[in-house]
Amino acid sequence: MTLDTKSFDMHRTLPLPPDRLWALLTDAKHREKWGAPDPETVLIVDVADVRVGGLDRHRCGPADAPEFVVDTRWYDLTQPIRAVFTETLIFGGTTACTSLVTYSLDAAGKGTELGVTVAVSSFTGPETLEELQQGWNGGIDNLALYAAKYAADA
Which pTM value belongs to this model? Predict the structure, then answer.
């Protein structure tokens, strides 16, 4: 089987300054609120070790069966400017794909220009690439809604 790869970028302007957005991006309790791609899906953080070299593990999927396991390894945490990490998606004991993800946060007035770059290699076919991108798009859309609510509550 050939290796399928893809890279994509997402950009959002969010209503929080970088230091406040940083917490939403890295704190496990916040990530559980916005990280799932749609309302029918949950994200449960089982292990959170957000430090350079740290390993997180979360599960994602329907609330009654969050069977997708994601291992996140943190490589760069330059607060509140940049985070770089890998994510490995495991389903049914099989590694489906691995991604290199970069967050860049640039102050924009009272808010932040968030850039997200994802470079993914799929070991299970090209459909995994599309599903992963759809998941990221949904998660980042949820982050925008969550950040707006978080900013309004402050």
Answer: 0.95
Pairwise CA distance, residues 53 & 63, whole Å: 30
Give CA separation, 90 vs 50, 80, 116, 124, in Å. Answer: 20, 29, 22, 11
Partners of residue 5 on adjacent β-strands: 121
**How do 41-47 and 4-14 pair as beta strands?**
unpaired
Q: Which CATH class is domain 4-153?
A: alpha beta
What is the per-residue pLDDT across 124-138, written as a single tens digit (0 to 9) for each?
A: 999 999 999 999 999
H-state helical runs in 1-113 = 18-26, 28-34
Please write the tens of the pLDDT for every residue from 17-51: 999 999 999 999 999 999 999 999 999 999 999 99
- Domain spans, the chain: 4-153
Q: Which residues contact 147 (CB under 8 A, 6 or more apart)?
A: 14, 15, 16, 21, 24, 34
